[in-house]
Amino acid sequence: MDIKQVCIKASEASIKMAELDGTAKNNALSAIADLLLKNKDKLIAANISDLKRSEEEKLAAPLLKRLKFDEKKINDVVEGIRSLIKLEEPVGKTMLSTMLDDGLELYKVTCPIGVIGIIFESRPDALVQISTLCLKSGNSVLLKGGREAKETNRALTDIIEEASAAAGIPKGWITLLENRDDVNEMLKMDDYIDLVIPRGSNEFVRYIMDNSRIPVMGHADGICHVYVDKDADLEMAARITVDSKTQYVAVCNAAETLLVHKAVAPEFLPVLKSELDKKNVEIYGDEETRKIIPVKAATETDWATEYLDYTLSVKIVEDTDEAIEHINTYGSGHTDSIVTSNKQTALKFMNMVDSGNVFWNASTRFSDGFKYGFGAEVGISTSKLHARGPVGLEGLLSYKYMLIGNGQIVDDYANNRKTFKHVKLNKQIQDL
Cα 11–380–397 angle (5° rounding)? Predict the structure, then answer.
């Protein structure tokens, strides 16, 4: 594969996509959804092939779980596409309008980023979510999935290409990269690629940042926490903790560490252990935790580990300040939740925890673009600039300033023949 030519075609396609209206993009999305359902058997067969090969290669259990793409997963991604279609058109929205002077109006208008390179793990459903979000936001996309999902990803990309081309979307807007050399070449294409989104470990994201001049939106580890405060409803706390840990363990928004206020630990931990035992969760605890419940000893490494499995580390803390300090020290800036009935404590926690998603009395598993109503997500950004948290349509947009004049020149203002008025308007660029 000639990566430079692929990038040139993607760049050319992105210019044409920027002009597409919402109807054209939604028609393409609908066509993709229909063709995915029509090809269910083909997709499941491809996925079975990937699963069989990966099992023979002894792929880790969490990755195998992510890799599975059965009829339920297909129906889920189609539901996500239908939800995406219902969202308002994101491109061309006026974010600001100002009359600089009579007959001189400034508009800040949303626009696509351009060409986006996305490297993701073994989840085939991520390919569908990412590509359809890029289509809706008017961006071209280069996709590199894990080799363990190569047959499923090929089948999905073929379907998306076929359906979108038939619906009039420019060819070259989507390309599947299949090997590591392609990625290394892609990272050199800063003349054509506008953004790279890597989904993986901190080390992987750092490698991408260190080996490219292209801007990177990092989505690294999901070391998420639940903190049970002294004023927590303990029944609620147990329910939230179990859901955060076990509802789906192989995802980045599953809880990995539980922090418990010392005042409620003696009452709470035995009850929680009983519930987690039902789910076969292995617990590692600090010294104080092990005085209350029989669990394995936690080490410093556990606080910084993303298990992606039925494993949970537990620490007893003196107060909310210690919980916040622990999260800001060991967390990955992904998602952290407090369980408490004290409003002031909750607000303090949410203001001071330095993460993209901070919750009060809710499971960390809610941290998701689809659940937030974004249609889907390309990932969850742990960066602070441009986009943070679940990256949906908004995170795949930039903006441009459009100035509409009537022959004005700066010299008139520089020599005080005219003066700026800077009056805020309530106008859309489409109103011109």
Answer: 35
Domain coverage including residue 290: 224-366
Residue (of 322, 314, 331) closest to 223 by Cα position: 331
233 and 311 fall within a common domain = yes
281 has a pLDDT exceeding 70 = yes
Task: Please say whether the beta carbons of 360 and 340 come within 8 A.
Answer: yes
Q: Are residues 159 and 236 in the same domain?
A: no
Model confidence over 195-220: pLDDT tens digits?
A: 998 877 667 887 888 899 999 887 66
Find the radius of gyration of the CA atoms of the chain.
24
Residue with tokens 């005219």: 418
Residue 430 located in a structural domain: no
Nearest one of 138, 113, 161 to 21, comparing CA atoms: 138
Token look-up 């937030």 returns 372
Q: Please name the residue ranges forming H helices in 137-227.
A: 150-166, 180-186, 202-210
**Domain CATH number, residue 312:** 3.40.309.10
Q: What is the pLDDT of residue 219?
A: 63
CATH number at residue 182: 3.40.605.10
pLDDT confidence bin for 180, thresholds 50/70/90: confident
Q: Are 295 and 273 in contact (CB under 8 A)?
A: yes
Tokens linked to 291 = 């005085």
Does residue 421 belong to any structural domain of this protein? Answer: no
- Contacts of 382-385 with CB under 8 Å at 24 or more apart are 382/218, 382/219, 382/220, 382/332, 382/333, 382/334, 382/355, 382/356, 383/217, 383/218
Note whether residue 136 is domain-resident. yes
Q: Is the pLDDT of residue 135 over 80?
A: yes
Query: Residue 137 in contact with residue 398, Cβ under 8 Å?
Result: no
Residue 173 · residue 164 · CB < 8 Å: yes
Which has the higher per-residue pLDDT, 120 or 406? 406
Mean pLDDT of 381-401: 85
Contact 258, 275 (CB under 8 A): no
pLDDT at residue 120, rounded to an integer: 85
Q: What is the DSSP letter of 383?
A: -
Which of 405, 422, 407, 410 is closest to 99 using CA atoms?
422
Name the residue with tokens 């795949």: 396
Q: Mean pLDDT in the chain?
A: 93
**Token pair of 101 as six digits:** 């002077």
Q: How far apart are CA 154 and CA 177, in angstroms?
A: 10
Q: 337: which strand partners?
A: 226, 359
pLDDT tens column, 318-377: 999 999 999 999 998 999 999 999 999 999 999 999 999 999 999 999 999 888 888 677
Overall pTM surpassing 0.85 (yes/no): no
